[in-house]
Amino acid sequence: MRRMILSDKMAVMLAVLLVLFMAAGHADQERLDAGGQWKYVLADGGAAITDFVEEPTGDLVIPSAVDGYPVTGIGDNAFADCSSLTSVIIPDSVTSIGIQAFYDCESLASVDIPSNMMSIGEEAFYMCKSLTSVIIPDSVIFIGDGVFIACFGLASVNIPDRVTSIGNSMFRACDGLTSVTIPDSVTSIGEEAFYWCESLASVSIPASVTFIGEEAFAECEELTLAVTEGSYAEQYAKENGIPYVFIAE
User: For 189-207, what is each residue's pLDDT tens digit?
Assistant: First the structure.
């Protein structure tokens, strides 16, 4: 049994490395598309959008192809500080979102993440204060640290069954978040993952979780954890003085 578990974890790690390699490896110099709007680099036959000429505003539909190349990635900081961007539709061809890709897009209220997405980089939606709801598809296997830090309006989010860890500061200061269910695939919750989520009233933690980082639930004064009897999460709740109830079998 132990050998099988190790193999499963190794498979997930290899898959994540493959996604990152495809997104960043073998990239050429930045190009400008024929329409004169999108800057991009080529990586393994696909294009990753890295920048733009005219700052997008309002509702944005990211193109599925540029100059005949399918858009497979959104690069690091590609749309950072686009303060007038209100919604984004990401095409099905995109499998990765880079680090701080939509950082501080303060008016961004909705984002459509396609079902083929595999990787969301660190702080991808950091400080997106108007974002209220995000559906992360089951295809996602990697979510970086701090993806939704300070998304004050975020009220609901789903965590896919293939995700194995909740990163450091992932939902830090999301004070509109009221409840979260963590899937059985998750084994660890990082430091300050839900720090200062003032409205967070309920988090369901499965028995699969065997590590919770420092101050993961600090300053969550309304919180009650739902845990499995005899689990690591129950012991964590006792040691940290967090109210808890048992998950019904």
Answer: 999 999 999 999 999 999 9
CA 213 to chain centre: 18
- Cα 58 from chain centre: 23
Q: How many residues comprise the chain?
A: 249
Could you tell me the end-to-end alpha-carbon distance of the chain, in angstroms, rounded to an integer? 24
pTM: 0.82
Contact at 8 Å (CB) between 56 and 85?
Answer: yes
Buried b (16+ CB within 10 A) or exposed e, 3-15: eeeeeeeeebeee
Phi-psi region for residue 153, left (φ > 0), alpha (ψ -120 to 50) or beta? alpha
Those residues with Cβ within 8 angstroms of residue 35's Cβ, 6 or more apart along the chain or in another chain: none
pLDDT digits (tens, 9 = 90+) for 35-89: 999 999 998 889 999 999 999 999 999 999 999 999 999 999 999 999 999 999 9
Residues 47, 38: Cα–Cα separation, whole Å? 11
With a CB cutoff of 8 Å and minimum separation 6, the contacts of 68 are none
